[in-house]
Each structure stands twice: as C-alpha cells, then as structure tokens.
Amino acid sequence: MSTVLETPVRAVEPAHPARPWAAVFALARFEARELRMTVSFVGVAALYIAWIVWQSTQSQGDYPVLQDVDRATQSMPLLVGLAVMLGVNRAVLRSRRCDTDRHFDVLVVEPWRRTVAHALSIVPAVLFTAVCVLVQFTWAALKPGAVGHGSPAELVVGPLTVLLFGMLGVLLARLFRTLFAAPILLLLLLFSQFVLTSPSGADWMSWLGPVVSESGATAFPSDLLERPAAWHALYLVGLCLSLAVLAVLVSGGRTTVVKAAIAGSVALTVVGVVGQSAGTPAGSTPARDRATNAPEKVQSCLKHGRSTYCAFPEWSGRTADWAGVVDRVQNLAGGSAGGERLTVRQRVDATYGLTSDTAISPSATPGQVTVGTDWGGNRVPEFAAAVASVLVAGNEKAGSEVCDARMVTIMWLALGGESDPMTSLRNVRLDDSVSGSAIVLSPTESMSMSAEQTRIVVDLLKKPRYSVAGKVKAKWTELTSPKTSTARVAELLGVPAADESAAGAEADGDSCDE
C-alpha cells in the first residue's frame, strides 16, 4: 500500500510587485504625446501662436488696457479645447475601434485607471494654453503705453476651458461608445455658446458657459467691471473635477475616495454657480454712477505746462501723451487761445454697463476737454480735434455745434502739427475719406465738415506748416468768428477760391440753418 502525499501548491509571488500607478503615468505620457501629434491640435496650436504674434504686433495695440487684455485671452482657447475634446475622445475609443479591449483584461491597469491616464494626458495641452495666455498678457503688459490691472481669475479661464473640454471628451467616450457623440456635442456647444447664451453677461445663464468676454466700445477702470470672475473660475474648476471624477466612476472606479470626490466636486461647482449667479450689472451701480457723473471725486490731476490733466488712477501715466497733443495744437493757435489754460478730463459713460456704446455728452465748462480711456491710432487725431474745437469755440458743447467756416480753423489746428496730416484727416473722418462732406469724430459728439471746407483743409495740409501758421495767428480773430464765410477763410489763408456754383452752395451753408 502506497501513500500519496499531496503538497499544497504555493502561489509564486512576482519578483516585482505590480505598480499600477506607474503604468497609469506611463500611459498618460504616451497619450499626451499622441494627442499633441494629432492634425487638429497641431493646426489649432499653430493658428493660436500666429494669432498671438499678429495681435501683439498691431500698432493699435501700443496702448493696451490690461483689464481688457485679460478677457481677450479667453477666446482662442475655445478652439484649442474643442480640438483637445475631439482628440482625447478618439484616444479613449481607440481600443474599441481596433478591437483590443479584451486584451486589457490581462493587464494590471483597470479600466478606471486607464480613464485617469486619459484625463492626465490633457494636462500638457492645458499647460501649453497657459503659456500662450501668459505670453499674450505679458507682451501687452510690457508695452510702454500699457495701463490698468489684469485679473488672475480672468487669465485662468483659457486653460480651464481647455481642461473642461478635454474632460468632457473623456466622459463622452465612457458614456457613448461611438465617435459621433463628440462632434454632435461640439455642434450643440457652439450653438449654445453663440446663440442661446446672452453675450452681455447680465443674464446668469450666460455665466454657465466657459467664456463670457463682455467687450464694449470703451475700456472701463478695473474697479468698474464688477464681473464675478473669481466665482466663475471656481465654477470651472468644480465642473472640470466633476466631469473627471464622473468619468472614473462610470469606468468602474467606485471606491470610497471616488464617491467622496464626486460629492466634493459637485458641491464646489454649485458654490461657483451661486457665487456668479448675479452676473455683471447691466446698468449703473454706485461706483459707475460716481465715475460717470462726478469723475473728479475719483481722479487725480497733474499739471503739464499750462494745462491740468485729470485721469482715473490707472491712467495717470498717460497724461504726458495727452499733453503732447495739447501743446502741438496750442502752438498753432493765435490770440489768447495759444496760452489758454485748459483742463483735460478723462470721462466714461458707465451708465449702461460694459457692453454699452453710448456717446459722452460734450461739456459746457469753458476750457475743459474730454479724453477717453482708449489711446493710440485714430484716438489721437480725434482728441486733437476736440482740443481745437475748445480753443476756437470756447467749450466742447459749442464746438460740437460748429457748422460754419470755423471748421476749417478747427481741423487745421488739429491736424496741421501731425507728421502725416493727410492720414490723420482720413482717420478722423467717419468714412475715411479726404474729399466731400463727412462726419468728424471726437471723444464726445461728432462734428461735420462740408465738401468745400474739406477742400480748403486738404489744400492747407499740403502747404508748409510755417506758411499757414503765420496767417492763422495773424488773422485769428476773423478766422474764429462765426460771421466769417468759408470763401473769406479761403482768402485769408491763401487758398484758391472755388468755382461759382460751389461757392454759392457753400455760402448758403454758412448760416447753419436747417
């Protein structure tokens, strides 16, 4: 009789224990590299960089307002985010397309860990966007003419938008095993962003979208924006975390930590929604009312030469640029206007909020000239026209109502000292013309030029400056009289007379009657 001894088989432990998180990070690095090499991401990234370079080298951007620049960094990341969403969605579904899902069962990386890896693969794209945003803002901030203050909460919206769309792409791939889900959602997102939501930012529903830019015709001081930017950033952070943890939960990661994380991220999102629910005020607030109707209470004043320049605190460094224009115009004026002490005051109309395009009413205060918050480009000759109208008519209100031959004097004073007066004439007219009648723009209400007045001004601007300046100063009293006809102004300044039909029509227009 033989006895069989059965020795229990002992499990052989691997020489190296499984390290699932190392595999997760390795997969994340691989997927991040694959994402960066997709045609859509490379194309959008190249377009993004080219757009930043183009925007930063434009001459009209030499005087940026930083509280507008930070919001301007939020639009292009939308395209990056959409490219990332499509790319990461395809990456998650790659194993299904290639029929390799069943091979994952022998690996140490569970499905929910692979979902974490795909979520981590979005991080390099987010960092790329953050670098682009930082470069765009820093480039503007380093310009000598930059004013204002940027908001970190506004600057993080761009990178968070990319992260949000990336997490949405991962979640869609785990919920719908088809490549059509992401493109369909893309169309819905575009429709909701540009059609359904209110661009004004006053409606709380508009703040549920990732970007609420609210660009207006006039830059506001930073303390007048009153945007819930910090709450919106918190909302985006909570939403990104909620989508990421939900994708992990759908993939089978039903651990206690995951369940606690989904509860915490949803709570964070709700707090952000509640905080931003008020949106941006659509109308006046105490701060906006004070800045609109009593700017002297919040402004500081500096003297440059004869005149005084009052600006909002963030614009105090720009008063020297304004003084250069005032001195140039006054040096061409005659009589007492050449030595008049002007008060240049910065004014905004914040009554109707950030998106309003309301003209500032001209001031009736003698010797006061309005200047806006924008500068550079067309704003310079427009301000020069306002200065000249006050020197000729006495105040802005009277200057805006000038419709007689004094317009010739006003326009020559405004443009005669420019290095390229013909280009400045084109820039200051609404239709960009240098012939015929036109509307002349200014920081307050516009002025009007007749065709004959335009002809005389063009002729004067083509003459040497010193030859015209002497005549203007010598005949100042007659040139600034409302009784002087256009034909007489042309005679005084040595401009050939118009033909008889044009002269008769112009004489009829000198009366300013309707």
What is the subunit organization of this protein? single chain
Amount of beta strand: under 5%
How much helix is in the residues? 40-55%
Number of strands: 6
Q: Looking across the biggest beta sheet, what order are the strands in?
A: 1-2-3-4
Distance between the termini: 134 Å
The rough form would be described as elongated
The helix-and-strand class reads mainly alpha
Give the helices and strands as they follow along the chain. Answer: HHHHHHHHHHHHHEEHEEHHHHEEHHHHH
- The unreliable regions are 11-17
Largest β-sheet summary: 4 strands, mixed
For the CA atoms, what is the radius of gyration? 33 Å
Instruction: Supply the number of helical segments.
Output: 23
Q: What's the structural blueprint in terms of helices and strands?
A:
Layout: H1 20-36, H2 39-56, H3 66-72, H4 76-92, H5 94-97, H6 111-120, H7 123-141, H8 152-155, H9 157-175, H10 181-196, H11 229-250, H12 256-276, H13 286-293, E1 300-304, E2 307-311, H14 319-330, E3 343-346, E4 368-371, H15 379-393, H16 396-400, H17 406-415, H18 421-428, E5 438-440, E6 447-449, H19 451-462, H20 465-474, H21 476-479, H22 486-492, H23 500-509
Parallel strand pairs: 2-3, 3-4
Antiparallel strand pairs: 1-2, 5-6
Helix pairs in contact: 1-6, 2-4, 2-7, 4-9, 6-11, 7-9, 9-11, 11-12, 14-15, 15-17, 15-18, 17-19
Brief account:
By secondary structure, this protein is mainly alpha-helical.
Describe the protein in words.
There is one protein chain. With 514 residues, the protein is mainly alpha-helical. Helices cover 54% and strands 5% of the residues. The chain contains 23 helices and six strands. The strands form two sheets. The chain has a four-stranded mixed sheet with strand order 1-2-3-4. Strand 1 and strand 2 form a beta hairpin. Helix 1 packs across helix 6. The longest helix is centred in the middle third of the chain and has 22 residues. The termini are far apart. The relative contact order is 0.07. About 1% of the residues have low confidence.
